[in-house]
């Protein structure tokens, strides 16, 4: 989320036409077209965040600026070249890193929250303890995971919550 991302088609020589057909999970389809003979581009139903990226001595690629959850979906590149017609299909999955929040509840128990991540984060406590995380799904596809650590108050010094997520791991410590 928030990064720019570039998708390329399989390189071919003597391309005459290149088309990206985008079918997001949310919203309608988008088509970007490029004709090499007159260097003409066209777009249908595409947001401003999706556009051609022109690079020296290469055919254009698809650039998505400020990637968001709404960009998730199928991306198909159709290439017409002297060697024939070719198709590359990708599925774009957007990762949203959760926000780690660690605090003490009203009873002095450590609470760890991995807020609004996609996919859901995994939580661990150090020192290791038995706990059951609770998940709360949100309308935008993100998930908040909450864990409460209940233990003897003598063991509540330097408690560490570790959040494991494909977009990056985080940890914080607290003394309740």
Give an account of the 3D structure.
This protein is mainly β. It folds into two domains: 5-92, Immunoglobulins (Immunoglobulin-like); 99-174, Immunoglobulin-like. The chain is 0% helix and 51% strand. It is built from no helices and 15 strands. The strands form four sheets. The protein has a five-stranded antiparallel sheet with strand order 4-3-2-7-8, with no helix packed on it. The chain has a four-stranded antiparallel sheet with strand order 9-10-13-12, with no helix packed on it. A hairpin with a 5-residue loop joins strand 2 (15-24) and strand 3. It is elongated. The two termini are 33 Å apart.
What is this entry, summarized?
0% of the residues lie in helices and 51% in strands.
Say what the CATH topology of the largest domain is.
Immunoglobulin-like
The CATH homologous superfamily of the largest domain corresponds to Immunoglobulins
Give the number of DSSP strands.
15
Q: Structurally, how many domains make up the residues?
A: 2
- Provide the CATH top-level class of the largest domain: Mainly Beta
Shape category: elongated
CATH architecture of the largest domain: Sandwich
Strand content: over 45%
Any idea what the radius of gyration is? 23 Å
What are the secondary-structure elements, in order, as H or E? EEEEEEEEEEEEEEE
- Count every helix, treating DSSP H or I runs of 4 or more residues as helices: 0
Name the poorly predicted regions. none
Q: Give the strand order of the largest sheet, numbering strands 1, 2, ... along the chain.
A: 4-3-2-7-8
Protein name: MOR1B protein
Subcellular location: Membrane
Domain Ig-like: 1-93
Keywords: Disulfide bond, Glycoprotein, Membrane, Transmembrane, Transmembrane helix
